[in-house]
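Changelog-linked ticket: carboxymethyl coenzyme *A example.
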Amino acid sequence: MLRFTLKNWGPTMAEPEYRPGLADVPVAESAISFIDGKRARLEYRGIAVETLAKESSFEETSWLLLKGELPTQKQLATFDSQLRVHRRLKYKIIDLIKCLPESGHPMDALQAGVAACGMFYPTKDRTDPEKNWEAVIRLIAKLPTIVAAFHRLRRGDEAIPPRDDLGHAANFYYMLTEEEPSPSITKVIDACLIVHAEHTMNASTFSSRVTGSTLANPFTVVNSAIGTLAGPLHGGANEEVLDMLEEIGTAEKAKGWLEDAVLHKKKIMGFGHRVYKVKDPRATVLQELAEHMFAETSKPEIYNLAVEIERIATGILGPKGIFPNVDFYSGIVYQSMGIPRDLFTPIFAISRVAGWTAHWLEQLKNNRIFRPEQIFVGKNDQPYTPLGKRP
Ligand code: CMC
């Protein structure tokens, strides 16, 4: 198998092997995050994601991803207050969100809102670090407001303005529900935002780097990543996991359902990963969070069903290296907080925007437009038959 790196890749090389899905093909040098798929290890700038989920906040983790180091107390305080200042949306953007169809998916509404922001805050010069940083702050600050506003407005409620006295996670929950979350709910949301914030060269991050490499504006960069995240093989899987659990219904039906699915080569949603060949460490963190939440109440049936499915599916698919991924337990956690299913992927986006923008800034430091090759399998030198002579 031909292995190639960015350094030795060049026109003098033998024709490369085509790898569907770019599996194992490096597309950038990056210092932002690291995965060891055999050891269930995910690090952001060298720090284990489990540690960050326990000890850090989304704001601090975002800074770490963007800047490469943990912030000083002063840096974090300034960053946090900048995020709070930029949470508000212009009233015209709220008006625009009001006009969107209530039945539309919130991921599409998020793209519409982000595109509108790009029109209000146009930037042409990608070489100005201050302007780039301003765009990053606006994106991280405003995505939760767009998601919450669409959710409120589609139900006929007023959009709730952000509260400056609340942190990022608590404010998002408040804008959705008009209720201030308890410290334990706040911690769960914050930890969910942390574990979803970055994940090396996944499809949506690659999208952001490809769009960024054209020197497109940062709102467009994030919008292309949002569109990529929406698909059911990527961020959209967390919604599908709950659909699947509901379809299975009860623990007694789990074994038969899974065997039938495997027989018919149906994908088990929330299972499998290109890189992890063991249980995704983020799934472990989210399961711990779920256990922690349910310790105060009784465990919902759907959680017990998921645990049973994990047990049986691991027996069937584990030998192929297929285990629960981040999406397997996240939906159960969100659902238990009363968050509607179609907001699961938008919540993924309001977290992953930190990773996308970190990759955008990294891409700009040493940019070259992405222009990969194809292996042409079509026809050459075909005659043109005029329309009148065609049947
Ligand atoms: N259930 C059953 N079989 C599976 C699954 C699954 N979830 N995932 C992979 N396989 C099998 C697949 O059928 C194939 O078998 P065979 O070699 O016999 O044809 C083999 O494993 C390789 O699968 P693949 O689809 O070629 O693997 P990939 O690396 O291209 O895809 C994946 C990775 C995540 C898209 C895939 O595992 C999948 O579709 N999982 C279900 C959707 C899902 O949960 N997505 C969330 C991913 S994690 C969060 C994120 O990154 O957004």
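Closing comment: Example verified and attached. The mean pLDDT is 94. Residues 21, 202, 233-235, 237, 265, 267-274, 317, 320, 322, 325-327 surround carboxymethyl coenzyme *A (CB under 6 Å).
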